[in-house]
Amino acid sequence: MGTPPPPTPQPAPARRMPADALQWAGLTAIVMVTIAADQMTKLVARRSFTPDDPFEVVPFFQFTNTRNSGVAFGQFQNNQLIVIGLSIVAITWMLYYFARSGGRHMLLPVALGLLVGGAASNLVDRVLQGYVTDFLHVGSFPVFNLADAAITCGVILLLLTLLQGERARLA
């Protein structure tokens, strides 16, 4: 009588699940809608509002027209080449991640679509104008635009999907 054979190792859950054609279509649709909505609202803001004459909707919410040559909260002001380069790297990384892992969760096309769409729309502004138009001012929060809101929502969704996937993997 010999020793029993060692237990058969169980495969780890797949960390790489490439996106399929439907997921790519969903991501692409969200990217395009995000860019279109952001660019249209920025155009309206540039034509309708000035920094010296904001339009107050309610006491804590205003429309305005602000030129932002930096990134979030004004960092990297007047360093467009650095910001453009970082934006291209970030968009490329997100698309690479999606290609490799977009099938891991049904919300990944939405999360990454919002992130890529927001980053790409702000990148368009930086390349064509040298700055990003921000026009939404809520309370004492810095002025922002729809692309910034899409990026924020995309980050939150991405974190939730990654945490949910990690929790399922550990269960």
Any overview of this molecule?
This protein has 171 residues and is mostly helical. It has one domain (21-170). It is 57% helix and 11% strand. The protein has 4 helices and 3 strands, in the order αββααβα. The chain has helices spanning 21-48, 80-101, 108-129, 146-170, and strands at 55-58, 61-68, 132-138. The chain has a 3-stranded antiparallel beta sheet with strand order 1-2-3. The radius of gyration is 21 Å and the shape is elongated. The protein starts with 20 loop residues before the first helix and ends with a helix. The mean pLDDT is 90.
Please describe the topology of this protein.
Blueprint: H1 21-48, E1 55-58, E2 61-68, H2 80-101, H3 108-129, E3 132-138, H4 146-170
Antiparallel strand pairs: 1-2, 2-3
Helix pairs in contact: 1-3, 2-3, 3-4
